[in-house]
Structures
1.
Amino acid sequence: MDAVRVQEADFSIEAEVTALRQASSRIGGIATFLGCARDFSEGRAVAAITFEQYAPMAVKALGALRDEALERFDIIETRIVHRVARVTPGEQIVLIIVGAEHRAPAFEACRWLIDELKRRVPIWKREDTPAGERWVTPHP
Amino acid sequence: MSVRVLLFGAVAERAGRREFRLDADAVADVADVVTAAGCRDEEALLVAVNHDIVRDWRVRVHDGDEVALMPPFSGG
């Protein structure tokens, strides 16, 4: 499994953590961020979310984020998986895992990665609401 | 050869198309592509040339380039 992926299928957190831990036996702390689909957003019920991506640029941007995180933070390995599919509330959307010797850089890098992913990776979500479908405008 | 233009998300929906080609001789820079796509009035439009974000719309475009016109990202 590649360390960064955009895929339609669901992912296994356990499989990703296992893959991350195989990178090094020096990993002493692992931080994860899991983004899930909500059933309510900005005052409206959400029945489903559909994702669109600009595939070659998305994969390139994720790879660049991983490289930059490995450079900026005192971490050992990181994996990022983002789904591009139609998902219903409760389903998994995005997973970021960071392994480091110690917890502080793992947490910092994990937070930085999800913030930068939202800013730099060309993926868009459209929510299916009772008022019709609407493209989501980004919020911090 | 030509310039391949890709549109995404709400930008594609408003423009009524997701992809088209422009004669490379008809466009000099990114601003020309944005105009040809009818996207001059898009707020916060993001443009990528060959998968790299371009902030300066005076960047030249060439035969074989791929230009993406995108709304702000909303992944995660």
2.
Amino acid sequence: MMTAPLEKALPVPTGETQPFWEGCQNHELRIQQCSACGQYQFYPRLYCTACMSEQVEWVQASGRGTVLSFTVVYRPVTKAFTEDVPYVVALVTLEEGPQLMSNIVECDPEQVAIGMPVESVFEDWSEDIAVLKFRPALA
Amino acid sequence: MESLRGKVAIVGAADTEVGVVPHLSATQLYVKAAKSALEDAGITKDEVDGLITCNSFVEPYMYHAEMIAEYMQIFPRYCLNVATGGGTTLAILHHAAAAITSGMCHTVLVTMADNMLSGLSRDRAIEAMSTAGHAQFERPYGPPIPAFYALIAQAHMHAYGTTSEQLAAVAVACRRHASMNPAAQMRDPITVDDVVNSKMIASPLHLLDCSLVSDGGAALILTSAERARDFPHPPVYMLGVGEGHSHEHISQARNLTTSAAKEAGERAYAMAGLGPTDIDVAELYDCFTPVVVIELEDLGFCPKGEGGRFVEGGRIELGGELPVNTHGGLMSHCHPGHPGSMFSVTEAVFQLRGACGPRQVKDANIAFVHAQGGIMSTHCSMILGKEVG
């Protein structure tokens, strides 16, 4: 399980992304859905990229997805990540469609594979910030 | 849309010394490259009426091109700085050509340099480049730059069975070419075993699948095809150029294994009226080995998924079907950051001039240059030739 040493820079929410981060704080994955055409999207945007409607609503995603691709990092990006090595950086395709970057945690990095089902898990980095991660889905 | 085909030519080209160059500052590398390119073109600085630079990571200026103009004491009517590298570095030549053909200026000096190695140190350079990811949605996960490209490599391996040994063949070819280039930073030949046994950085990418951190600069002089006949070297004509732009962040990529190099290449081929089989030498952006494999596919040199097999057996080496990165590329010649793809252009010019000595491609008439920036985000393809045809 990855830890969040103090040196790791905390993400700074913006007005546009605040509802996502509030969701994370509650250990809940929130993404946007367009009320006009139904498309889901991530990261959060002012309007729907499919139909340009501004009627985008925040909805709770299932938290389930699959690994689109991954890498096991052996040379950390900064000293703050040294203790995490080796760690898995992955792209995950959510069940609803959007894809995002994350870490795959709570497993041996060698077990991670493309197409592997994963589920969301949240790591509390501070009182305000919890970071979305994924772990292998329980069968 | 009026075609730029054959309307603009490169009449001056020069590299500074590259690799470890501690005795020159970033700014000095820019102006040294510029002076050498002016000498190569046989013109004085007063004949330059357009100036383009990329910004320096080490010594940035808000108005960088104006800073270089001021330093050189030239007073252009067209003066432009681009903040980023990779594909943008090459794409700006597209803009220079448009500026020349539209009459904004006659003679453009493009100079690009940096000293990422001596000015920053390797560790600080790598750490500085880690800011490439999205601040909220990528950086919290700790991806170093190789990890972004590793995601692409892993997806390509999974989809098409590409192997680490095939990726390694790209690094081996680049190094073999660098061994014939006295200017290159890394000249000791390497083998596929050396690459796959080098330290794992971000699986499946090993240390030798990654490009260098370097100092260096390069400059070009461009002018209209009509004026180009009056210079000491035979002109190298811009026959085709095209761009493709697909995303900023890799987590938003439409597709991990097919890039916007496809659109860039198709647009360049269409302008030139040429196809992949017409190309004698290719200088392809090689910040990491899988990039070359995907570029070869997307640019039509082999079918999608065949890139791994294509790079094997010396096919991309001198004497092979398509010599790639004859100067050694970013993996063995040098990679000072933003200027990286400029060395692909200067090498293409030197190849078409027949000036490359032991690494010369026989009868090189048409060269293909491709650059990408971001994480396979922004692409530019350029076809250069000795004749307008």
3.
Amino acid sequence: MYVAVKGGEAAITSAHELLAEARRGDPAEPELSLAQIGGQLTLAVDRVMTEGSVYDRELAALAIKQARGDLVEAVFLLRAYRTTLPRLVASLPLDTSAMLVRRRISAVFKDLPGGQVLGPTFDYTHRLLDFDLARPDGQRPPANEPEPPATTDDQPVAPMARVADILGREGLLQPETEADPCAEVGDITRDPLTYPAGRDVRLQSLARADEGFLLALGYSTQRGFGKNHPFAGEIRMGEVEVQIVPEELGFAVSIGSLTLTECEMVNQFKGGKSLPPQFTRGYGLSFGESERKAMSMALVDRALRCRELGESPGAPAQDEEFVLSHADSVEASGFVQHLKLPHYVDFQAELVMVRDMRRKFESRETSGEENGSERETALRG
Amino acid sequence: MSAQEAMIPERQRWMAALAKSEEGELEAAWAALPEPPGYELLRAPEVGLAMLRARAGNTGERFNLGEMTMTRCSVVLDDATVGHAYLAGRRPRAAELAAVFDAILQSPQRREGIETSLIAPITARLAAAKARTAARSAATKVEFFTMVRGE
């Protein structure tokens, strides 16, 4: 328990002034603009949008600036701002098959229709610090720009085939189908999570979950805590249209597009009483370019499907209550950081109790009457 | 089929273009109108959120992925035509102008002018950007060779 305290206004104001000064840094250096953050710290922006659960590059850039680059704090700021906006509509399901692909790779098929498109990746870099970037204007000029092919709107860029469809044709992969197309979609921003949780709310929770937490859990499944033999069936990143059906129109309209990263894990599965041997799936989807997050999400999604696949849960990543109730960085950092708030009354009570226990303990020590079991009871009490 | 219903595919096309317009493009087209129509706001520009739905594996259970900021606006022209706009992002002025253009485009007499001066340039810009993205990505397409050992 913590209690409200009064006073300290002047100190708090001074602390916030100091924070502003620390945020600004050396005033001789130019101040960061939101366009710079949005354009050059793109992956930080993507992470804040994903975990903040609001796709808006400018708001995420502002949150990062305000939070001095503390991304967990920035996620908190974005979540808080979100509550000030009304929800106008729910979109039609995004169609990632129609994505304008900027990156698409598969670790299970070398030759697949559309090819392996690396896109803007850190993969195959040497992870050596590039001191050219340390110089002003050290960013290399763009590579020779390839001549764009003559494309008109009549010849749209062909959508890329999905690895899941290739495997699915042979029945080797568990299909993803919808049990009830009319069912309400669970929403953890409206209704608290209850257990057992449906896959809809599990995926929603995982989509907003802290990347570090999911990364560690996903890693744990690879190391043997709930092993399910994953392969990165397909990872794709690019632009997807957003469509809504406004009530006043009654037909679908596009409101714009957004960048998504999608990961489909393909996992080994021996089959069960009612299921033939086939590969099973884990799904990850995140805002922007956030591949590590999407991969981790897919691993944990698959781990949480253990019950429906007849696997006996036992590992932390398979325990949905453990995973889902600790995955949100806003909740977690709120509860951890509330320990900083005044607990004076609470602690006073504890102090009185411990002093009393010590007094009893010492009086027994000096009188020499205590026996071992009484002493233990006193210590535990 | 009513005239309104017959117009739906065309209207979807121009509304999609208007949604991806830049405010400057809308302002310039508005300023260039020889006889800009009078209009009133039915619903003033409103910024809010769209909950983005997705599907597990793109074909399975629907789930709520997260939200996106959006702006909507509705206007009525002096001739009683109603126009709507729904744009991603927080863009009140763009939403107002897009709603006005949606209304103007519904008039067969005025459509052609706006198609030429506004919709076609937006569509061309988007197509060029898409082609550039596709070409830049295509340049990163790799062929992995599997090495056979022990031969």
